[in-house]
């Protein structure tokens, strides 16, 4: 779409510059809307065209821009050519702009912006995204929550771009905690509680047995023995472990569903108990494994004994560690999926861990290690629920729902909604996601319930509110108008700004696809909503002549469609009423 215009500009340029249009398209960008009424629609950055950023001094660039602008001609698409700072600016024929944008939004539906030329020639890739990855029986903390929503966003975006995406939840389902649980369950466990509320009950047992083990050597010893039995493949012990795992996964699936998140695979560290022994052998055979005096085994990554570049891969009893299992998991996934890219989403505390894992894969001779990527994110401070610090995902969801229900009850304009619980949850989740996605993922931030639920500010509540309002506009005025509408009626500055903004959606998607940061989409959608709010005040539908009303309705429908598309990519389910 936007690219239709970009291509047309690129074609003219290509004749002048004797370069293929494909090379020019990415130097042409839609101009962000400004408060000033008249802005050009596209600009060509002369700097990026010349493919250099340093040795051309400013005045020279300006001369080039002017020269280029003089040689270019207006045509049926471009109605005005001018120059800006180091740019050549293009204004698109107003009627053509309106018609093309609106038609394209309707025609492409959920694919609007994704069919763009910016993505053409993009090879379809096999992408593994590993995210969420909580530890069974331990806390589901805010870091896991962030991983869940960020990973879901990345997977959504990649999928929307046509890649084949596999979503993996890599559970912490192995390790000493299961030794403790095995022992603890015999002491404090209840089968009934386990069945009805497994995550909560396992956590309780885990907390209790941990306390007990600290004071009572026998308990600690028995936990140790239980884990040994697991490691050795004792059937009875494994059966209990399997039950804990199965019941937990069942409940995870149910809770993730409330979040709108699903996984193709519930993998976990337990899968790699045996395979990590093979990894150890492989490391050894390649001469990379070094035994220490303590009996553990390490891989020295720098070769100079610098302690920060040493990775321990085996305990003194021969069992594997977190990193060893990650090596085994990566190798296994390569075998299974033959991925082009594998993305791990965790907090930044694990940065070094992944660096070491990727580096070890590399020196083991796996060239595909460079296809592995860690997407780190920062720490969220101060997220508390009524029950205190975040321990369960479900508590966060319940808190969001009840707080939002309260908010909705206090807002007089809230319409009667059919399912207030569900609506509150969707709006509340939007609030949470927008707050989280606003900034650079790597930054830490301070969490505040009050801030995220503000209906006016740049919040998810505001996005949902805008979506619901636009939806009710369509409901009120029906679609009768939509068949014949006159695009010439959409020439007010408010309409033009919206059209210009819609024109930019593909570029925003492109940016997010490049750096995997959702904030570009977030700020785009917030601007879109503000524009819609302003237009809603002035571009009345009621009492307007049919062709004007129809055109405006069409415009609002396009806004709602793009708003919904963007929200869904972020992992938000748009509501039609609130
Ligand atoms: N379960 C881990 C934790 O809670 C996160 C797993 C991250 N993924 C991985 N492949 N190591 O810290």
UniProtKB/TrEMBL annotation:
Its EC number is 6.1.1.19. The keyword tRNA-binding does not apply. One of its GO terms (biological process) is mitochondrial translation. CDD domains: ArgRS_core. InterPro entries: aa-tRNA-synth_I_CS, Arg-tRNA-ligase, Arg-tRNA-synth_N_sf, ArgRS_core, DALR_anticod-bd, Rossmann-like_a/b/a_fold, tRNAsynth_Ia_anticodon-bd. Residues 463-578 form the DALR anticodon binding domain. It is found in: Mitochondrion membrane. Gene3D superfamilies: Arginyl tRNA synthetase N-terminal domain, HUPs, Isoleucyl-tRNA Synthetase, Domain 1. GO terms for cellular component: mitochondrial membrane. Its main location: mitochondrion. It catalyses: tRNA(Arg) + L-arginine + ATP = L-arginyl-tRNA(Arg) + AMP + diphosphate. GO terms for molecular function: arginine-tRNA ligase activity; ATP binding. Keywords: Acetylation, Aminoacyl-tRNA synthetase, ATP-binding, Ligase, Membrane, Mitochondrion, Nucleotide-binding, Protein biosynthesis, Transit peptide. Catalyzes the attachment of arginine to tRNA(Arg) in a two-step reaction: arginine is first activated by ATP to form Arg-AMP and then transferred to the acceptor end of tRNA(Arg). Belongs to the class-I aminoacyl-tRNA synthetase family. This is Probable arginine--tRNA ligase, mitochondrial. It comes from Panthera leo. The gene is RARS2.
């Amino acid at each position: 779409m936007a690219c239709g215009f970009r291509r047309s500009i690129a074609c003219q340029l290509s004749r002048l510059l004797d370069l293929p249009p494909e090379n020019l398209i990415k130097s042409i960008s839609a101009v962000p809307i400004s408060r000033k009424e008249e802005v050009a629609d596209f600009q060509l950055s002369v700097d990026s065209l010349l493919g250099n950023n340093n040795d051309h001094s400013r005045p020279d660039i300006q001369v080039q821009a002017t020269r280029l602008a003089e040689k270019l001609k207006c045509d049926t698409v471009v109605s005005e050519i001018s120059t800006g700072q180091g740019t050549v600016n293009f204004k698109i024929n107003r009627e053509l702009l309106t018609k093309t944008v609106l038609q394209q939004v309707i025609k492409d539906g959920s694919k609007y912006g994704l069919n763009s030329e910016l993505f053409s020639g993009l090879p379809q890739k096999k992408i593994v995204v590993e995210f969420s990855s909580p530890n069974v029986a331990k806390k589901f903390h805010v870091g896991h929550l962030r991983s869940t929503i960020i990973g879901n966003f990345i997977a959504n975006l990649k999928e929307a771009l046509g890649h084949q995406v596999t979503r993996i939840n890599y559970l912490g389902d192995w390790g000493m905690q299961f030794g403790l649980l095995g022992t603890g369950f015999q002491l404090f466990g209840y089968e009934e509680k386990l069945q009805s509320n497994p995550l909560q009950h396992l956590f309780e047992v885990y907390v209790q047995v941990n306390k007990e083990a600290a004071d009572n050597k026998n308990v600690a010893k028995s936990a140790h023995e239980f884990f040994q039995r697991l490691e050795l493949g004792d059937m009875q012990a494994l059966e209990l472990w399997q039950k804990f795992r199965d019941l937990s996964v069942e409940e995870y699936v149910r809770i993730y569903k409330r979040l709108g998140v699903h996984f193709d695979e519930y993998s976990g560290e337990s899968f790699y108990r045996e395979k990590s022994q093979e990894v150890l052998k492989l490391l050894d055979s390649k001469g990379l494994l070094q035994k220490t005096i303590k009996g553990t085994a390490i891989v020295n990554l720098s070769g100079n004994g610098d302690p920060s570049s040493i990775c321990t891969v085996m305990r003194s009893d021969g069992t594997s560690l977190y990193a060893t299992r990650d090596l085994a998991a990566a190798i296994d996934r390569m075998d299974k999926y033959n991925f082009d890219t594998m993305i791990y989403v965790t907090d930044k505390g694990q940065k070094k861990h992944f660096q070491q894992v990727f580096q070890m894969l590399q020196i083991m001779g796996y060239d595909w290690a460079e296809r592995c990527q860690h997407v780190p994110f920062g720490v969220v401070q101060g997220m508390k629920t009524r029950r205190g610090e975040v321990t369960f995902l479900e508590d966060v969801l319940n808190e969001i729902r009840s707080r939002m229900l309260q908010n909705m009850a206090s807002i007089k304009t809230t319409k009667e909604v059919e399912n207030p619980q569900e609506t509150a949850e969707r709006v509340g989740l939007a609030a949470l996601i927008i707050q989280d996605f606003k900034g650079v993922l790597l930054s830490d931030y301070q969490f505040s319930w009050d801030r995220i639920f503000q209906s006016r500010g740049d919040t998810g509540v505001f996005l949902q509110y805008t979506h619901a309002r636009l939806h009710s506009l369509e409901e009120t005025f029906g679609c009768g108008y939509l068949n014949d509408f006159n695009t010439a009626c959409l020439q007010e500055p408010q309409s033009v700004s919206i059209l210009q903004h819609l024109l930019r959606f593909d570029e925003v998607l492109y940016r997010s696809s490049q750096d995997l940061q959702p904030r570009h989409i977030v700020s785009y959608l917030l601007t879109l909503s503000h524009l819609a709010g302003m237009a809603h005040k002035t571009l009345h539908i009621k009492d307007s002549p049919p062709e004007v009303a129809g055109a405006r309705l069409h415009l609002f429908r396009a806004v709602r469609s793009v708003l919904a598309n963007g929200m869904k990519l972020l992992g938000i389910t748009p509501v039609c009423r609130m």
